[in-house]
Amino acid sequence: MSAVAAPRVPDADAVRDILRGVVDPEIPTVSIVDLGMVERIEVGPERIEVELLPTFVGCPAQELIRGAVVDALASFGRQAIVGFSFRRPWTSDRITAAGRERLAASGFAPPAEPADVRCPYCTSARVAMDSVFGPTQCRSLFYCRACRQPFEAFKLV
Ligand SMILES: [Zn+2]
């Protein structure tokens, strides 16, 4: 082994591991990997490209997320090209099982069409939208008629 360590050569898995530490500030308990936002990772000799899918409509967080991804990739010592893509729509199917658990544990219903929203506490479909205007532009307030808990759901793009 040489004492002069070459820069760590990253691969897509190493990049993905780093991205597990990046969260959407709207949902700080769930990483962008678990949200299914990471569409493509490409590692070249000079640079790392990451393509992200935007999730929720009206969220001001996209620039923050992009910056956080660039910061996270800085440890690899290569140029990082990070951008949002609209090549395909993000859907809630892309959220991992771990991501769903963490969303529910934080009192968030996974994003769904309003008719498909279920209570994150008791999974009842007997829910009512309290207001289309949630605490932020990208969330709506719901009320569960079964367990009487209020909760938040994300609006889909
Ligand atoms: Zn409930």
Radius of gyration from the alpha-carbon trace, in angstroms? 18 Å
List the total number of helices: 3
> How would a crystallographer describe the biggest sheet?
4 strands, mixed
CATH class of the largest domain: Alpha Beta
**Considering DSSP H and I runs of 4 or more, what fraction of the residues is helical?**
10-25%
End-to-end distance = 50 Å
Q: How many beta-strand runs?
A: 9
Output the structural class.
Answer: alpha/beta
Unreliable residue stretches: none
Blueprint (SSEs and pairs):
Blueprint: H1 12-19, E1 23-24, E2 27-31, E3 38-43, E4 47-52, H2 62-73, E5 79-84, H3 97-105, E6 108-109, E7 127-131, E8 139-144, E9 150-154
Parallel strand pairs: 4-5, 6-9
Antiparallel strand pairs: 1-2, 3-4, 7-8, 8-9
Bound molecules: zinc ion.
Question: Can you tell me about this structure?
Answer:
The protein has 2 domains: 12-84, Fe-S cluster assembly (FSCA) (GMP Synthetase, Chain A, domain 3), CATH 3.30.300.130; 108-154, no CATH class. The chain is 18% helix and 27% strand. It is built from 3 helices and 9 strands; from the N terminus they run αββββαβαββββ. The strands form 3 sheets. The chain has a 4-stranded mixed sheet. Strand 8 and strand 9 form a beta hairpin. The model has no long low-confidence stretch (mean pLDDT 84). The structure holds zinc ion. Zinc ion is lined by residues 119, 121-122, 124, 144, 146-147, 149.
